[in-house]
Model the fold of this input.
Amino acid sequence: MLYLDNSATTLPYPEVLDSYIQTTRNYFGNPSSLHKLGSDAENLLRQARKQTAGLLEVKEEEIIFTSGGTEANNLAIKGTAFYKRYKGNHIITSAIEHPSVMEACLQLEKEFGFELTILPVDENGRVSAESMKKELREDTILVSIMHVNNEIGTIQPIEELADILQHFPNVSFHTDHVQGAAKVPLPLSHPGIDLCSMSPHKFRGLKGTGILYRRKGAHLMPILSGGEQESHLRSGTESVAGIAAAAKALRMSFIDYSEHHVRLYETKQELIKRLKEIDGVVMNTPESQSAPHIIHFSVPGIKSEVLVHRLELKEIYVSTTSACSSKKSAPSQTLTAMGKSREEAVSGVRISLDMQSDRSIIHPLYENLQESIQHILKIKG
Done:
């Protein structure tokens, strides 16, 4: 089996699964309870928060645990918008954001009267810092731009954007770091980055836990009412086992990055080279300024889901767009925003690697992909 859909989710580390099971068994108390079982769980929660903050080189109180990347994005965007509404109602985002960002922004526009500016991207799926600067207004309160695009892997100029935005004190800057965490470094120490979302199941942790970095002094209005956990910003009993597992996965994935990122990049470059040799393949991922684990291409004339299912018969697992949009039949919004044709936008396929992927995947993928394309075209006549 070749599992090449790691941008959708990753196989958890065995040690992370063990940590989750042991914590569930031995630290099952509610961390808000006053008795020993509660204080034991609270201490473990505090330890996981400290480890997570240390790995990210931020303060412990700047880490908020959520139920996943979607909630982290929604808390960052809606929490900022509602808190800052008295200062302004203008929000800026890009045309290629993940649905959990784009739909949150559109909801604020439609239901609550916020004004939304959607920045275009170039042919490589990259936002221009200059275009963002031109759209900034006196009533702008939030800019949300993803770090690594989840479909094509383009790396956005987050530090360049942050350099500009730190001179606009009324504007909070949020970045969706879900696809970049533990794969593409991002210095959260940059004074212009106020909010950053991560999702552990993208770096070999478990589903059901998310991480939101909130710079000290960046204010949010809670979007969940309740027991006021997580510094009064995210109510609900914390998943101590999930959070402990997330901290462990982050530590292990950082080690993997330090040991294997050069090999992963080389594997990606070689794979792109081989894919270009296949008749009909159009590469969408830019060769520079893109993440080392994502490769996206189109085969005009073949719908992406047909090719995905053909490869599945050979136990090769890839995907179409992002996992959150893969069951929709509409063309890829990312490819459309890049100026790709409709035929290219409905035939996109994403290969996403694991940090430990190496050249051994290249030949079987190349051979089976080539055969699958020829088989489908033959059937079509």
The longest strand covers residues 90-94.
